[in-house]
Amino acid sequence: LLGQILDQWFESEPLKATLATDAVIGAMASPHTPGSGYVLLHHVMGELEGRRGAWGYVAGGMGALSQATAHAAIARGAHIFAEKAVCHVLLARDGRAQGVVLQDGTEVRSKLVLSNASPQITFLELVPQEQLPKDFVQRIRQVDTCSPVTKINVAVDRLPSFLAAPNARDGQPLPHHQCSIHLNCEGTHLLHQAFTEATHGHPSNRPMIELCIPSALDPGLAPQGCHVISLFTQYTPSVLAGGQPWDEQARNAYADRVFDCIEDYAPGFKASVIGRDILTPPDLERIFSLPGGNIFHGGMSLDQLYFTRPAPSYSGYRSPIPGLYLCGSGAHPGGGVMGAAGRNAAQVALKDFRHL
């Protein structure tokens, strides 16, 4: 239990609760849920420019990371086709993957196929079920993809000024504007209460909010004087109580609640908002093909990690289909912007390729 670990090391409740947010991020879990300590470890392992556990902003926005990867691949001879939906994996008579078929009917032949789609899409939608072992299919169907995350992107015409640290007269970003700002995190009991409400189908009344202002470090993201704010919030159930839909009214009601909370910490925030984009779990699933809206392609619980990710006997990136590999967040070691699953899968694929 993360709560027990934090109690051993720290006395300050706000500090413990702030650290606890990284133990429940993207997870329908409480700091008191068994296994939550691993999720915290997952988010602080590794390093950035020699600093252990550090995180950073990507200059130009997260899309710039994808572009940098694409440019590196193209420089080495890769061909990238964007906006070309894959209909299914093409199989030879012996059951080996030999390419993919696009929705427009185009066949792309290849000796190997690597999928960074979720295990659910890869094996339940892109591959004929009769080609897979029944116990494997059952395992993939049973993967817990429950997600509590609603992402809200906000455009504002000025920096938020927090009561705890008011803005300078010149309106320039201060050090705290350049960090991850955690709200509604005065105690771990608040996170647990927010989690409990969501388990009953109700969006948290006092949601956990991680507020980032990337334009405070990267001014090119917004016009002069204006800023973009990223709100990573929990907990919102995928399915609301009583089967109510996540319609515009429900979306806006939740976003208003989040904004009311921010207003308590930074009066004037709501008046500064000039636009917002609300992405609930069903929106994240529909737009980005994230199963259940889960940013990790599946829960990072101990029963779905290491040798069981995505399924027992298939944690080594190879799949029941020879020549088909899984290289996304649903593979070991899981989600996060680190590229470990992709690198590991590439090493395995290259090793196999030499024998073809």
TrEMBL record:
Instruction: Indicate the segments forming the Amine oxidase domain, all copies.
Output: 35-170
Keyword GTP-binding tagged:
no
Quote the subcellular location field of this record. Answer: Mitochondrion matrix
SUPFAM superfamilies recorded for this chain?
FAD/NAD(P)-binding domain (SSF51905)
Q: Could you confirm whether the keyword Flavoprotein appears in this record?
A: yes
Recorded GO terms, molecular function?
Answer: oxidoreductase activity
Sorted keywords for this record are: FAD, Flavoprotein
Q: Which domain of life is it from?
A: Eukaryota
Q: Which Pfam families match?
A: Amino_oxidase (PF01593)
The principal location of this protein is: mitochondrion
- Please give the GO cellular component terms listed in this UniProt entry: mitochondrial matrix
Assigned protein family: Belongs to the carotenoid/retinoid oxidoreductase family.
Its quaternary organisation is: Interacts with COX5B; this interaction may contribute to localize PYROXD2 to the inner face of the inner mitochondrial membrane.
Tell me which PANTHER family the record gives. Answer: PHYTOENE DEHYDROGENASE, PYRIDINE NUCLEOTIDE-DISULFIDE OXIDOREDUCTASE DOMAIN-CONTAINING PROTEIN 2
Task performed by this protein = Probable oxidoreductase that may play a role as regulator of mitochondrial function.
Name the UniProt record assigns to this protein: Pyridine nucleotide-disulfide oxidoreductase domain-containing protein 2
Species of the source: Smithornis capensis
